Amino acid sequence: MRYMLIMEAPESMALGGPDAPPAEEAFEAMGRFNTELVDAGVLLAAEGLAPSSDGFLVTHDGEGPSVTDGPFTEAKELIAGFWMLEVASREEAVQWARRCPIGPGVTLQVRRIAEMSDLEDVAPAEVLDAEATLRRRVAEREQV
């Protein structure tokens, strides 16, 4: 089973922000956690995200998509980073999430990543076949 751990925090808590923990301490704690994930063989990907001032929103107003540059001042919390894990069970995902070194004011949203089998009773067979082909192409690209 694959799970995504999504760290949500006020932008003021981002590294360098006025409410951020000391950078050295934060990097050391995250480094230890990431090393544990790698050593356990469960980490698929992990990244921190740049401030919302470097991002943009794409919305659709019924006429077409529009792009609005960040920062996203309306949001109370923003996604600060994520981990993708492959674990044996929901319980194992819970155990890893509890170990993540987040502090007060930070939320870790944990979501199971949908598998192809979740879509079998929902999507048409040709859509499932096309998706399987795309996933094979991505896997082949990763092996190069």
TrEMBL record:
InterPro entries: Dimeric_a/b-barrel (IPR011008), YCII (IPR005545). It holds the Pfam family YCII. Residues 1-116 form the YCII-related domain. Transmembrane segments: none annotated. SUPFAM superfamilies: Dimeric alpha+beta barrel (SSF54909). It comes from the Bacteria. Belongs to the YciI family. This is YciI family protein. The lineage of its organism: Bacteria, Bacillati, Actinomycetota, Actinomycetes, Pseudonocardiales.
